[in-house]
Amino acid sequence: MSVPERMSGVLTPVVTPFGNDLAPDAKRLTEQCRWLLAQEVGLAVFGTNSEANSMSVDEKIELIDRLLEAGIDAARMMPGTGCAAFTDSVRLTSHAVNSGCSGVLMLPPFYYKDVSDDGLFAVYAEIIERIGDARLRIYLYHIPPISQVPLSLPLIERLITSYPETVVGIKDSGGDWANTKAMLDAGWDDFRIFVGSEAFLLDNMRNGGDGCISASANVNPAAILALYHKWDDGDGEAMQAGLNDVRERFIQFPMIAALKAGVAHFSGDPGWAQMRPPLVALDAGQQAQLQKSLEDIGFTMDGLGAGK
Amino acid sequence: MSVPERMSGVLTPVVTPFGNDLAPDAKRLTEQCRWLLAQEVGLAVFGTNSEANSMSVDEKIELIDRLLEAGIDAARMMPGTGCAAFTDSVRLTSHAVNSGCSGVLMLPPFYYKDVSDDGLFAVYAEIIERIGDARLRIYLYHIPPISQVPLSLPLIERLITSYPETVVGIKDSGGDWANTKAMLDAGWDDFRIFVGSEAFLLDNMRNGGDGCISASANVNPAAILALYHKWDDGDGEAMQAGLNDVRERFIQFPMIAALKAGVAHFSGDPGWAQMRPPLVALDAGQQAQLQKSLEDIGFTMDGLGAGK
């Protein structure tokens, strides 16, 4: 049994298309994944920006199966598998491992707040022990602005110490560079540190980090990957400024709806704009504003929609 | 097909027992439900204090089935059925309706934050339309300190206006009496308003409210029910003060763990103290402090554990 390599580079929480009936659309998702893989962007499907927590475990298992059937490479997949109930996390994570995914991105349980590090450690330990598979590679998911359940440095260190071959990285979406820097400085052996926004990508690479898992990589993959590869070539600051400019044109709107509006526009497939409640699509005025803002800088998504 | 009466009175989010293997324990739960029903307390199983969001939909469906098989009266049940994914909410709610439960207590989706009223309305509407059953009675669940997703008064009014026979009440666990009072003053026809803490029970009854759905009713049901029945008999203030005193002895500790420690102690069944991660049990020192604090006022849970 081969075990997965630890991941690095640029990944994206792939936006999830839904039909008019609000069902996940595996065909459109497959097309999007193919386009992203062609840009060398890894597939952190079922992230926050994938509306993953608006889908049931069964819906997510079905999507994994459909992607693999369509030939998407499991080695490039890091699905989000952390649920409110650890029994759900076990079921979904097991499926990802058995499907050959290189890793999983795991939220802590996110309903109860002010939980202790002991309690969070117990959840991750329970999941790891129940799965009991040497192929399991967990990337922790720290996103306190949304989960409202932060992962402290002592907790992370305790998990790495207890499960050094399983707890192998983190996505830091806290938006607080000092926290990322503290992890980079912690000296954890081969622990993969991804920033959750490409706005911190240059800083992360300069400090020995491993890349980013960024929502914007759904729409701006090539430029983000270019900075990942060339951050030390002398143009890093200018490349970072370019990424930030694109990012800011999206985040002036609700981010997930804006990403999907972008994909809808550049693919010529308006169905992509469909959101699953409780999130809502941009209205016509917002869509027009976003398009105008992107046209102002000549932004495009080359090759999108070509596979239809 | 008969439709359920709208509910009122005292209900409790029944604490959920777990075995050493962390599996829900239907037998212990049945005993607890019998004891509560004997005290005339209704069963809001799968509430926040039931650790409901640490259980999968399948686990909750199984528990409903086991309770009904054991003869627990579905007419006295208001299970919590609101999940992060509306497809899960539909599945669990359908099961509750088909099982004959008088109502369901429904959280909004709780992962995404800062969602719009339009988005929250769309979720509730989608659930109601998909279930499409005249027996469905939804009690909304407003608990912003934990869900971090408040239900605004305009949203509630819009739901009542659109689904007057389905959206029939609310549990307000916001801890803000002004919000409860604003709902009581809104003039919504026969809309059942429950406070989420018995600390507001006297105020709620004086202002035309319908009772409480309170964690403390797991341990102090008779006294809470007494205030519900006798709030206008002249001793209301003293009865409320008595309830508050007991409540404060529990909430000096993490509440759910303290409730289970209380049940464990007074039933003589230490297994009741087991928590499901990420929540953790009281340590030995906390348990001793809690017991001492309850002995100081001669607090007991009469008849608990007698059914074993």
Radius of gyration of chain A, CA atoms, in whole angstroms: 18 Å
Q: First CA to last CA of chain A: what distance?
A: 37 Å
The best one-word shape of chain A is globular
Strand content of chain A: 5-15%
The helix count of chain A comes to: 12
Uncertain stretches of 5 or more adjacent residues of chain A: none
CATH architecture annotation of the domain at 9-220 in chain A: Alpha-Beta Barrel
* The CATH fourth-level homologous superfamily of the domain at 9-220 in chain A: Aldolase class I
The CATH class label of the domain at 9-220 in chain A is Alpha Beta
The pLDDT mean of chain A sits at 97
Assign the structural class of chain A, choosing from mainly alpha, mainly beta, alpha/beta, alpha+beta, or little secondary structure.
alpha/beta
Q: Within the CATH hierarchy, at the fold level, what is the topology of the domain at 9-220 in chain A?
A: TIM Barrel
Helix-strand sequence of chain A: EHEHHEHEHHEHEHEHHHH
* Number of strand elements of chain A: 7
How would you describe the oligomerization state of the chains in this entry? homodimer
User: Helix share of residues of chain A?
Assistant: 40-55%
Strand order of the largest sheet of chain A: 2-1-7-6-5-4-3
The pair of chains with the biggest contact is: A-B, 38 and 38 residues
Could you describe the largest sheet of chain A, including whether it forms a barrel? 7 strands, parallel
